[in-house]
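Side project, low priority. Logging it here so it doesn't get lost.
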Amino acid sequence: MSNEMKVIMENWRKHTIKEDVQNPTTWGELSQKIMLTLAAEKWPRVGKSLAKFGFKLLTAAARQAFDAIESLEDVLDVIPDDLQQSLEQGSEEAIKKLSDFAKEKGGPIGSFVVDDLMGMDDSLTKNLAGFSALNIEDEYEKLINKDILKKWAKNIIMNAKNVPPDTPLPNLNQKLEDDLQSAIGAHPDTDKQDIRN
């Protein structure tokens, strides 16, 4: 590889990988975090390249959260076959394409995982940037009627599929409180009628 190409790749890595993928705040960044992490596990050469340039691979806490997301293995199925072949070879250009592809598909990929994240135990997501915003507090899950919560969650998942990649991740606990307050005038912490079991 020419020195010029190496400089270009170094600049790209610093910009793309460290952008905000480590601490996602948008649907696109969360999608990149998920896709790049899964790709690093599936294709060892991708993992080596990402680790070499500062992308943090899964910690034990993140591994527990990823393992609890049932639909996660389906995420890699959306990667086009030609891109998967390039990733198997460890092409750095393919890693950039994957990063861009993942960001572009932020909403649809986010909708794969948001259902599992919403119901996840708080201890699994509390220290994971991006993931914690999409988890409903265990306390609310115990207090709110399950049918009301399922209906609300289904709406969140459907909306996530269509959001632009730069849309900020919602704080689902705050959104739940706001939606319940506006819909029925009740707050899960203070109002027992209408929403609690």
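Brief comment: Confidence is low (pLDDT under 50) at residues 14-20.
Revisit when time allows.
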